[in-house]
């Protein structure tokens, strides 16, 4: 029985470490309702996908998406892309879905990352409106970590299933 609780405790620690968190970092003209990151946790060599569901309060003809990545608090990457490459333009007032895929090279170190995603409307000739700003905190897992999590999860399911049979 003691080993069962040890496995549950280990899984709780590992599974808790794999979850990502997000929060808004500025008021904007869109309300964010959902953010997903797949795979979770990502590993070096993966292509990660951020998907953002929001509700735009304004019509948007064009805009930009700025991405800034920090590793352990140090800026390591940034880019700005056309909003219309990430979603269908023009964006009408109402539901808005943005997606962003990024390949993680095999040399990316495991550890904590913060990705700031800032979306603005307009172009360089007009005053831009902030649509949304998000900070997404996640860890890049060391190689093989997902396999360990899968093995632990399978072991727990097996123990739970065999425990149910024993009780029946």
UniProtKB/TrEMBL annotation:
<keyword id="KW-0732">Signal</keyword>
<comment type="similarity">
    <text>Belongs to the NPC2 family.</text>
</comment>
<dbReference type="InterPro" id="IPR039670">
    <property type="entry name" value="NPC2-like"/>
</dbReference>
<dbReference type="GO" id="GO:0032934">
    <property type="term" value="F:sterol binding"/>
</dbReference>
<dbReference type="Pfam" id="PF02221">
    <property type="entry name" value="E1_DerP2_DerF2"/>
</dbReference>
<comment type="function">
    <text>Catalyzes the intermembrane transfer of phosphatidylglycerol and phosphatidylinositol.</text>
</comment>
<dbReference type="InterPro" id="IPR014756">
    <property type="entry name" value="Ig_E-set"/>
</dbReference>
<protein>
    <submittedName>
        <fullName>Putative extracellular protein TR9_058</fullName>
    </submittedName>
</protein>
<dbReference type="GO" id="GO:0015918">
    <property type="term" value="P:sterol transport"/>
</dbReference>
<feature type="signal peptide">
    <location>
        <begin position="1"/>
        <end position="19"/>
    </location>
</feature>
<dbReference type="InterPro" id="IPR003172">
    <property type="entry name" value="ML_dom"/>
</dbReference>
<comment type="subunit">
    <text>Monomer.</text>
</comment>
<feature type="domain" description="MD-2-related lipid-recognition">
    <location>
        <begin position="22"/>
        <end position="138"/>
    </location>
</feature>
<keyword id="KW-0813">Transport</keyword>
<keyword id="KW-0445">Lipid transport</keyword>
